[in-house]
Design a protein that fits this description.
Helix 2 packs across helix 3 and helix 7 runs parallel beside helix 11. The protein is globular, with a radius of gyration of 17 Å. Strands 2-3-1-4-5 form a five-stranded parallel sheet, sandwiched between helices. 40% of the residues lie in helices and 12% in strands. It is an alpha/beta fold. The chain has one domain: Rossmann fold, CATH 3.40.50.
Length: 243
Protein backbone atom coordinates (compact mmCIF):
# COMPACT_ATOMS: atom_id res chain seq x y z
CA UNK A 1 0.00 0.00 0.00
CA UNK A 2 1.30 3.46 -0.89
CA UNK A 3 1.95 6.10 1.77
CA UNK A 4 -1.10 8.15 2.73
CA UNK A 5 -1.49 11.62 1.26
CA UNK A 6 -1.74 14.28 3.96
CA UNK A 7 -3.56 17.33 2.63
CA UNK A 8 -3.41 20.51 4.72
CA UNK A 9 -5.98 23.11 3.64
CA UNK A 10 -5.35 26.64 4.95
CA UNK A 11 -8.41 28.88 5.08
CA UNK A 12 -9.76 31.95 6.81
CA UNK A 13 -12.97 32.02 8.86
CA UNK A 14 -16.45 32.31 7.34
CA UNK A 15 -15.40 30.61 4.15
CA UNK A 16 -16.77 27.27 2.91
CA UNK A 17 -14.00 25.42 4.76
CA UNK A 18 -16.39 23.19 6.71
CA UNK A 19 -18.41 22.34 3.61
CA UNK A 20 -15.16 21.47 1.84
CA UNK A 21 -14.23 19.26 4.79
CA UNK A 22 -17.64 17.59 4.45
CA UNK A 23 -16.92 17.05 0.76
CA UNK A 24 -13.59 15.33 1.35
CA UNK A 25 -15.06 13.41 4.28
CA UNK A 26 -17.55 11.90 1.83
CA UNK A 27 -14.77 10.17 -0.11
CA UNK A 28 -14.33 6.44 0.38
CA UNK A 29 -10.60 6.76 1.02
CA UNK A 30 -10.31 9.66 3.45
CA UNK A 31 -10.19 10.70 7.08
CA UNK A 32 -10.74 14.36 8.01
CA UNK A 33 -9.66 16.39 11.03
CA UNK A 34 -11.20 19.72 12.01
CA UNK A 35 -8.91 22.64 12.96
CA UNK A 36 -6.41 20.61 14.99
CA UNK A 37 -4.41 23.71 16.02
CA UNK A 38 -7.41 25.52 17.53
CA UNK A 39 -6.73 24.61 21.18
CA UNK A 40 -3.04 25.46 20.78
CA UNK A 41 -4.00 28.83 19.32
CA UNK A 42 -6.34 29.61 22.21
CA UNK A 43 -3.82 28.42 24.79
CA UNK A 44 -0.92 30.49 23.44
CA UNK A 45 -2.81 33.59 22.30
CA UNK A 46 -5.17 33.82 25.26
CA UNK A 47 -7.99 34.60 22.80
CA UNK A 48 -11.46 34.47 24.34
CA UNK A 49 -13.54 32.49 21.84
CA UNK A 50 -16.96 30.89 22.47
CA UNK A 51 -16.53 27.50 24.15
CA UNK A 52 -12.88 28.22 24.98
CA UNK A 53 -12.57 25.82 27.92
CA UNK A 54 -14.32 23.00 26.06
CA UNK A 55 -12.01 23.47 23.07
CA UNK A 56 -8.90 23.48 25.28
CA UNK A 57 -10.05 20.21 26.85
CA UNK A 58 -10.81 18.57 23.49
CA UNK A 59 -7.43 18.88 21.74
CA UNK A 60 -3.69 18.89 22.48
CA UNK A 61 -2.60 22.34 23.66
CA UNK A 62 0.97 22.03 22.30
CA UNK A 63 1.66 22.40 18.58
CA UNK A 64 4.34 19.71 18.84
CA UNK A 65 1.71 17.15 19.88
CA UNK A 66 -0.59 18.25 17.06
CA UNK A 67 2.26 17.93 14.54
CA UNK A 68 2.95 14.41 15.76
CA UNK A 69 -0.70 13.44 15.25
CA UNK A 70 -0.87 14.99 11.78
CA UNK A 71 2.26 13.23 10.59
CA UNK A 72 1.69 9.94 12.43
CA UNK A 73 -0.56 6.96 11.64
CA UNK A 74 -3.77 7.96 9.86
CA UNK A 75 -6.93 6.90 11.74
CA UNK A 76 -8.57 3.94 10.07
CA UNK A 77 -5.64 3.51 7.72
CA UNK A 78 -7.17 6.01 5.27
CA UNK A 79 -5.18 6.85 2.16
CA UNK A 80 -6.18 10.54 2.25
CA UNK A 81 -5.74 12.49 5.49
CA UNK A 82 -7.57 15.79 5.00
CA UNK A 83 -6.54 18.42 7.55
CA UNK A 84 -8.75 21.53 7.75
CA UNK A 85 -6.81 24.46 9.19
CA UNK A 86 -7.52 28.08 10.01
CA UNK A 87 -4.47 30.06 8.89
CA UNK A 88 -4.60 32.38 11.92
CA UNK A 89 -4.04 29.37 14.17
CA UNK A 90 -0.52 29.12 12.74
CA UNK A 91 1.20 31.35 15.29
CA UNK A 92 4.85 32.40 14.81
CA UNK A 93 6.03 29.99 17.51
CA UNK A 94 5.07 26.98 15.37
CA UNK A 95 8.16 25.51 13.74
CA UNK A 96 7.48 24.37 10.19
CA UNK A 97 9.85 21.48 9.51
CA UNK A 98 7.07 18.93 10.09
CA UNK A 99 4.96 20.60 7.40
CA UNK A 100 7.33 19.84 4.53
CA UNK A 101 5.88 16.35 4.03
CA UNK A 102 2.29 17.58 3.72
CA UNK A 103 0.46 18.52 0.54
CA UNK A 104 -0.73 22.10 1.08
CA UNK A 105 -3.55 24.08 -0.50
CA UNK A 106 -5.29 27.39 0.18
CA UNK A 107 -8.97 28.32 0.30
CA UNK A 108 -9.77 32.04 -0.03
CA UNK A 109 -12.74 34.40 -0.08
CA UNK A 110 -13.08 38.06 -1.00
CA UNK A 111 -12.38 40.07 2.18
CA UNK A 112 -15.52 42.23 2.30
CA UNK A 113 -17.78 39.21 1.83
CA UNK A 114 -15.83 37.32 4.49
CA UNK A 115 -16.09 40.21 6.95
CA UNK A 116 -19.83 40.63 6.37
CA UNK A 117 -20.31 37.02 7.43
CA UNK A 118 -17.72 37.22 10.22
CA UNK A 119 -19.41 40.26 11.78
CA UNK A 120 -22.57 38.23 12.36
CA UNK A 121 -20.60 36.05 14.79
CA UNK A 122 -18.06 38.52 16.20
CA UNK A 123 -18.47 42.29 16.28
CA UNK A 124 -14.80 43.24 15.96
CA UNK A 125 -12.01 41.86 13.78
CA UNK A 126 -8.36 42.53 13.07
CA UNK A 127 -6.56 41.69 9.87
CA UNK A 128 -4.83 38.79 11.64
CA UNK A 129 -8.20 37.28 12.58
CA UNK A 130 -8.94 36.68 8.89
CA UNK A 131 -5.77 34.70 8.25
CA UNK A 132 -4.75 36.55 5.09
CA UNK A 133 -1.24 37.61 6.23
CA UNK A 134 -0.63 34.13 7.59
CA UNK A 135 -1.74 32.54 4.31
CA UNK A 136 0.60 34.74 2.27
CA UNK A 137 3.53 34.12 4.62
CA UNK A 138 2.96 30.35 4.49
CA UNK A 139 2.55 30.37 0.72
CA UNK A 140 5.88 32.19 0.30
CA UNK A 141 7.57 29.79 2.71
CA UNK A 142 6.24 26.80 0.77
CA UNK A 143 7.48 28.36 -2.47
CA UNK A 144 10.92 28.59 -0.89
CA UNK A 145 10.69 24.84 -0.21
CA UNK A 146 10.04 24.23 -3.90
CA UNK A 147 6.26 23.79 -3.63
CA UNK A 148 3.53 25.50 -5.65
CA UNK A 149 0.38 24.88 -3.57
CA UNK A 150 -2.96 25.22 -5.35
CA UNK A 151 -5.30 28.06 -4.38
CA UNK A 152 -9.05 27.80 -4.80
CA UNK A 153 -11.71 30.43 -4.10
CA UNK A 154 -14.99 29.59 -2.45
CA UNK A 155 -17.01 31.13 -5.26
CA UNK A 156 -15.28 28.86 -7.79
CA UNK A 157 -16.63 25.87 -5.87
CA UNK A 158 -20.13 27.28 -5.41
CA UNK A 159 -20.46 28.31 -9.07
CA UNK A 160 -19.76 24.77 -10.32
CA UNK A 161 -18.95 22.25 -7.56
CA UNK A 162 -18.32 19.28 -9.85
CA UNK A 163 -15.98 21.12 -12.19
CA UNK A 164 -14.19 23.03 -9.43
CA UNK A 165 -13.66 19.98 -7.24
CA UNK A 166 -12.47 18.03 -10.26
CA UNK A 167 -9.86 20.70 -10.96
CA UNK A 168 -8.93 20.94 -7.28
CA UNK A 169 -8.50 17.17 -6.95
CA UNK A 170 -6.34 17.14 -10.10
CA UNK A 171 -4.15 19.87 -8.60
CA UNK A 172 -3.80 17.72 -5.48
CA UNK A 173 -3.01 14.61 -7.55
CA UNK A 174 -6.24 12.93 -6.49
CA UNK A 175 -9.07 11.34 -8.45
CA UNK A 176 -12.37 13.17 -8.12
CA UNK A 177 -15.18 11.12 -6.58
CA UNK A 178 -18.84 11.85 -7.26
CA UNK A 179 -19.58 11.27 -3.58
CA UNK A 180 -17.81 14.57 -2.81
CA UNK A 181 -20.87 16.51 -3.98
CA UNK A 182 -23.21 15.39 -1.16
CA UNK A 183 -23.09 14.53 2.53
CA UNK A 184 -25.39 13.77 5.45
CA UNK A 185 -26.85 16.73 7.37
CA UNK A 186 -26.21 17.33 11.05
CA UNK A 187 -23.16 17.40 13.29
CA UNK A 188 -20.53 14.90 12.13
CA UNK A 189 -18.35 12.90 14.47
CA UNK A 190 -15.23 14.55 13.06
CA UNK A 191 -16.51 18.09 13.78
CA UNK A 192 -14.78 20.11 16.46
CA UNK A 193 -16.63 20.77 19.71
CA UNK A 194 -17.21 24.34 18.49
CA UNK A 195 -19.55 23.13 15.73
CA UNK A 196 -22.66 24.17 17.64
CA UNK A 197 -21.57 27.80 17.60
CA UNK A 198 -20.04 28.18 14.14
CA UNK A 199 -21.61 25.51 11.90
CA UNK A 200 -25.30 26.40 12.05
CA UNK A 201 -25.62 26.65 8.25
CA UNK A 202 -23.53 23.68 7.22
CA UNK A 203 -25.23 21.26 9.64
CA UNK A 204 -28.47 21.84 7.72
CA UNK A 205 -26.82 21.26 4.35
CA UNK A 206 -26.47 18.16 2.21
CA UNK A 207 -24.24 19.70 -0.46
CA UNK A 208 -22.83 22.96 -1.73
CA UNK A 209 -25.42 25.72 -1.99
CA UNK A 210 -25.41 27.73 -5.24
CA UNK A 211 -23.61 31.05 -4.99
CA UNK A 212 -25.96 33.94 -4.19
CA UNK A 213 -24.70 37.52 -3.99
CA UNK A 214 -25.35 39.07 -0.59
CA UNK A 215 -25.44 42.67 0.48
CA UNK A 216 -22.12 43.76 1.98
CA UNK A 217 -22.66 45.71 5.19
CA UNK A 218 -19.52 46.78 7.03
CA UNK A 219 -18.82 49.32 9.73
CA UNK A 220 -16.04 51.84 9.03
CA UNK A 221 -13.81 49.77 11.29
CA UNK A 222 -14.37 46.61 9.24
CA UNK A 223 -14.07 48.51 5.94
CA UNK A 224 -10.58 49.50 7.08
CA UNK A 225 -9.75 45.86 7.81
CA UNK A 226 -11.03 44.86 4.36
CA UNK A 227 -8.74 47.44 2.75
CA UNK A 228 -5.79 46.05 4.72
CA UNK A 229 -6.65 42.51 3.58
CA UNK A 230 -7.01 43.35 -0.11
CA UNK A 231 -3.29 43.11 -1.11
CA UNK A 232 -3.01 39.69 0.54
CA UNK A 233 -6.20 38.54 -1.17
CA UNK A 234 -4.97 39.75 -4.55
CA UNK A 235 -1.65 37.94 -4.08
CA UNK A 236 -3.47 34.66 -3.48
CA UNK A 237 -6.25 35.26 -6.03
CA UNK A 238 -3.62 35.70 -8.75
CA UNK A 239 -2.58 32.10 -8.05
CA UNK A 240 -6.05 30.50 -8.18
CA UNK A 241 -6.38 27.30 -10.13
CA UNK A 242 -8.08 27.61 -13.50
CA UNK A 243 -11.55 26.06 -13.66
Amino acid sequence: MSAPQRIAIWSGPRNISTALMRSFGSRDDSHVVDEPLYAFFLCESGADHPGREEILASQPNRWQDVAQELTGPVPGGAQVFYQKHMAHHLLPSVEKDWMVGLTHAFLIREPRAMLTSYSKKREHARLEDLGFPQQVALYKWLEAQGQAPPVIESRQVLDDPRKALGAFCAALDLDFQESMLTWKPGIHGTDGVWAGHWYDAVVKSTGFSPYQPKAVELTPELEAVAEQAEPCYQFLAARRIRI
